[in-house]
Amino acid sequence: MDKVKPVLLKDAVGVSDLAIVMGDPDRVYLLSTLLEKPEIIYDRRGIVAVNGEYKGRKVTLASHGIGCSMASIILEELGMLGAKTIIRIGTAGSLVEDLDVGDTVLAAGAGYMLNGCGNNMYSPEINGGTSPDPLLLSGIYYYLLNNNVKPHVGLVFTSDAFYAEENIMDKLISRGFIAIDMETAILYMLGWIRKWRTLSILVISNSLVKKTPLLTTHELAERFIELTKLVLEYLAKYLELNTVFTNT
């Protein structure tokens, strides 16, 4: 990996070992207001990356676009540039009645279609492992809980086709999935392959069960800021105390 040069982020000057990623570049701009000394290190092709600090902890924010194919490129390149812990703060559609717009989901695992989400390129004969760093999930879960945020923990399904999801909704619900997104599976798969710490934290932007409209980053801005601030506080205090199973 260290001998490969990034293609899209080739002009970036380097990134922190901690990266927080998201699909929407507007969310990067929004959340960069939480950082001290924010500096845009890349802004091209719809991909934005910002370096900064939070309470002395260096952090990189980056957008990864929509879907596993685009996300895998940005995730790989962040890893090449030095990221070791990668956390996605994204959106998801709810598949269950008790998960409402604005709620938080910590993805305990991610399903995907056979050979979907780039798996056939990375692991053509074996389905890749798609779970987070369990210590990171546990630590952030209790930190949010102790700060008056009650996150849901459950399985999400990573979709390859945004407008085809209704065709399989009943099957997903029957298999225990509580929400659907488009990037978590590739983040988790690459996390175990590349030995990164990973976690996907999702804000519910719409309900596929209740047929609610899809809310944008701007409409959910207050929720994203509140959630990301708590996550950054946790990471600034406790990240170095965690170990990841792949490195033991």
TrEMBL record:
Q: Name one GO biological process term.
A: nucleoside metabolic process
Gene3D superfamilies, from UniProt? Answer: Nucleoside phosphorylase domain
**Residues making up the signal peptide according to the UniProt record:** none
What InterPro entries does the entry give? Nucleoside_phosphorylase_d (IPR000845), Nucleoside_phosphorylase_sf (IPR035994)
- The record places domain Nucleoside phosphorylase at 18-226
Which residue spans traverse the membrane? none
* Coiled-coil spans in chain: none
Q: A GO molecular-function term, please?
A: catalytic activity
Gene Ontology, cellular component aspect: cytosol
CDD domains named among the record's database cross-references: MTAP_SsMTAPI_like
Identify this protein by name.
Purine or other phosphorylase family 1
Species: Staphylothermus hellenicus (strain DSM 12710 / JCM 10830 / BK20S6-10-b1 / P8)
